[in-house]
Design goal:
Elements: H1 2-14, E1 20-23, H2 32-40, E2 44-47, H3 57-77, H4 84-96
Parallel strand pairs: 1-2
Length: 98
């Protein structure tokens, strides 16, 4: 599962252990694999309360920043909004460093 690989990579690269993992109640995170992985690795796993986006503050802020970056990029380059998805992909990949 991708999240398990990501957590292992973060541990290898930083030398720090993930202690807490919090997600929304999406089905991609509510499953036995995540629960077993967290249990065996000593990770405290919590989910947010449904329909409370305020608990997802960091993710919501990141999304807002991406949207602003895309709008700025399209406006500055005088490009049509039909290229919004390509600009968004470019923005996210640029942030990730790929």
């Amino acid at each position: 599962m991708a999240i398990c690989d990501i957590l292992a990579m973060l541990k290898r690269q930083s030398g720090l252990k993930v202690c807490h993992l919090q997600s929304d109640n999406g089905l991609e995170f509510i499953n036995d694999i995540i629960h077993i992985f967290c249990y065996y690795n000593g990770i405290i796993y919590k989910t947010t309360i449904p329909y409370t986006p305020k608990q997802n503050r960091i993710a919501e802020q990141a999304i807002a920043i991406f949207f602003e970056m895309v709008h700025s990029m399209l406006y500055t380059a005088n490009i049509s909004l039909q290229y919004w998805d390509e600009a968004f992909s470019y923005t996210v990949m640029g942030i990730k460093g790929n």
